[in-house]
Specification:
This protein is of the alpha/beta class. 49% of the residues lie in helices and 18% in strands. It contains 22 helices and 18 strands. The longest helix is centred in the C-terminal third of the chain and has 45 residues. The model has no long low-confidence stretch (mean pLDDT 83).
Length: 655
């Protein structure tokens, strides 16, 4: 599908990368990761033909179609989202327009050539699924959170995040053979994100996605490719497996480097010892030449590009932090909350979740005092001090200021001496404070905005999508800082990994109601699944009862539903079955290699060479560990498939 051959790119004196060679097989779902500034987006632009490499070439199948989602929304004029998506229908869309013209022509005159072409165009249109075009476009837009009203609204009236969703919908509808997605989850809420992941599971083409969302990469990726200054490194499996394998590779490399260093030291001692002995001159020269030819194993650890920081210790608040009693809120005719009650307690770490438009940001603004309720009251507890971090917080920074001047602008005269210390706590040390805001990365701007927000420590921290502008390293830093934070926290985030790391309560916001679930995102999700299963079971019981009362399905309907359930099961387990086959093949190869090694280790002639024996034992230990790891994977995949099959059998039995 795609080959990069020795790609290099520099901007002035700065080399982004060089010697990047990478093969992407067709049909793969690839997560593309690397530190901020490594050049991931530049690689995408080179693949898409928007930039040229300084060296090397991009080889792509000539007939393949490419789609590229950038981080900026397209200019689509005054079209509606539905119109913008439908225009990506390609040949089918062109045929639809032609058929309409032919129908108009046939209404005014009789012509055999027109009739023949009309029949040809109609047949081809049907083959391309043209009669389902609008239904498919609406399905994708609905999956991405559009309502009937927003599907038909002019695009310029939509926010930037919704315009990004239109761009994404256009690509999913067009279904290019190679899909490049640059941070596709940034503007999706959790419900939409889960739909998007499921959609990509059955996508027929090749997908490469840049993302800092670990949960997305775990569910989406079949392989992870990391871009470093040394090139690309490919890891089979999802993001969790990548992290494990990266550590294992580094450990193996360190051991190999230590072993090589030991061997080289022995050679160097030999050279030093016999350098001036004529009888050993030939041997010494041979060793020197061999030493010069040795390719040294270099162990390179990734630099930490995200300095750690701690939130200033806030004053202790009362036990009851905030009480919401009978609060209502509306915008014009739209009632967001008819009446809600909520109490937050000291030390709670709350994540607000729910679909876009459900009222999460409204609730956060009410808690922050940014907007006032139409009815009811919001009462702060004893000694509660609030700080509110909004999605647009980075836009309030003055690009002309230095980092230090930006903080000093909000400080009182007595606080000026504290500014450098505060910036140091947020990762700006030494000359960093003299950087202009304009040249800061998204993560640096986010840290500066947090420093400004918390210059006077607050014990109620309210944050709307705080990870949106952060790379993975910076997200980790923020997670660690929030874990150590002594106050009460309320966040809105679509990053499930982040929610899991910091939240101990999940509050679901939907339909003007709120419901609290103690625990992390994983615990919340498990409770929701259990509830859905109970409801499905109750529904199946009701269906069976109705069937017994002659109100059930006809035999034909039952057969159709059974076929649909089996097809859905087949599609939904395709990846697990493929992974299970791959693991079984790898287990077989590992067992064959172990048998071969055991055979060598019983051969008396082989045992005479101590170096080979040591290598064989090391290899055997590695194979035993690999075999155990693979068997664990095999068991996990097998159990998952069995559970899915049991779920299918339960649904079939309920029909």
């Amino acid at each position: 599908m795609l080959h990069l051959v020795s790609i290099a790119k520099s901007y002035g004196p700065r080399t982004l990368f060089e010697g990047v060679s990478w093969h992407v097989p067709p049909g793969q779902r690839v997560g593309f990761v690397g530190r901020n500034g490594a050049g991931k987006t530049t690689i995408f632009r080179i693949i898409a033909g928007l930039e040229s490499p300084d060296e090397g070439e991009v080889v792509r199948r000539k007939s393949s179609r490419l789609g590229y989602l950038t981080q900026e929304p397209e200019d689509l004029g005054d079209k509606t989202p539905l119109e913008a998506v439908l225009e990506m229908g390609g040949e089918a869309r062109a045929l639809e327009a032609e058929i309409a013209g032919l129908e108009a022509a046939m209404a005014t005159r009789s012509d055999d050539a027109i009739l023949t072409r009309y029949e040809e165009a109609s047949t081809r249109f049907a083959q391309l699924g043209g009669y389902q075009l609008e239904a498919e476009a609406r399905r994708i837009l609905a999956g991405l959170g559009f309502t009937e009203r927003t599907m038909l609204a002019p695009i310029p009236t939509l926010s930037g995040g919704w315009r990004m969703r239109v761009s994404l919908a256009r690509l999913l509808f067009a279904r290019p053979d190679l899909l490049l997605l640059d941070e596709p989850t940034n503007h999706l809420d959790l419900a939409t994100l889960i739909w998007f992941e499921e959609f990509l599971q059955t996508y027929p083409g090749t997908i490469i996605a840049i993302s800092h969302d670990r949960a997305f990469l775990d569910r989406f990726s079949q392989s992870i490719v990391e871009l470093t200054a040394r090139g690309v490194e490919v890891y089979t499996g999802n993001f969790t497996r990548y992290l494990e394998e990266k550590v294992a590779r580094l450990e193996r490399l360190e051991k190999a480097a230590a072993q090589q260093e030991k061997q080289l030291a022995q050679v160097e001692r030999f050279i030093e010892r016999f350098r001036y002995k004529a009888s050993k001159a030939k041997a010494v020269q041979s060793k020197v030449k061999a030493l010069d030819k040795v390719e040294r194993i270099e162990v390179v650890r990734d630099a930490d590009h995200a300095p750690r920081f701690r939130f200033p210790k806030p004053p202790r608040s009362g036990k009851e932090v905030v009480r919401v009693a009978g609060v209502s809120k509306r915008y014009g005719d739209k009632v967001v909350y008819p009446s809600i009650d909520l109490t937050l307690w000291r030390g709670q770490r709350v994540a607000l979740v729910g679909p876009n438009g459900a009222g999460k940001s409204t609730l956060l603004k009410l808690l922050a005092g940014v907007i006032q309720p139409d009815g009811g009251e919001i009462v702060l507890g004893h000694e509660v001090k609030r700080a509110y971090y909004a999605q647009h917080q980075l836009d309030t920074l003055d690009a002309r200021n230095t980092v230090l001047a930006e903080l000093e602008a909000i400080a009182s005269f007595d606080q000026i001496p504290q500014c450098r210390g505060m910036l140091g706590a947020f990762g700006f040390s030494g000359k960093d404070v003299d950087k202009k805001v304009a040249v800061l990365s998204g993560g640096e701007k986010a840290r500066l905005a947090l420093a400004k927000l918390l210059f006077d420590p607050a014990n109620l921290l309210l944050m709307d999508e705080p990870t949106n502008h952060l790379d993975m390293a910076s997200c980790d830093v923020l997670e660690e800082a929030l874990e150590d934070y002594d106050g009460t926290l309320v966040i809105i985030s679509h990053d499930r990994h982040f929610i899991n790391a910091v939240a101990n309560v999940v509050i679901e916001v939907d339909g003007g109601r709120i419901e609290a679930y103690p625990g992390s995102w994983d615990e919340y999700e498990a409770k929701k699944k259990a509830l859905a299963a109970e409801q499905a079971s109750a529904g199946a019981t009701t269906s069976a009862s109705n069937a017994g009362n002659n109100g059930g399905l006809t035999q034909r309907d039952k057969k159709r539903l059974e076929a649909e359930l089996r097809q859905a099961f087949s599609r939904g387990t395709r990846d697990q079955k493929r992974q299970l086959d791959e693991v079984e093949a790898r287990v077989a190869r590992a067992e064959e290699a172990l048998l071969a090694l055991d055979g060598q280790l019983t051969d008396p002639d082989f045992l005479k060479d101590s170096y080979k024996v040591r290598e064989a034992f090391q290899r055997r230990e590695a194979l035993v560990r690999e075999h155990a790891h693979l068997m664990s994977d095999w068991e996990e995949l097998s159990l998952e498939l069995e559970a899915r099959k049991a779920e299918l059998d339960q649904k079939l039995a309920a029909l």
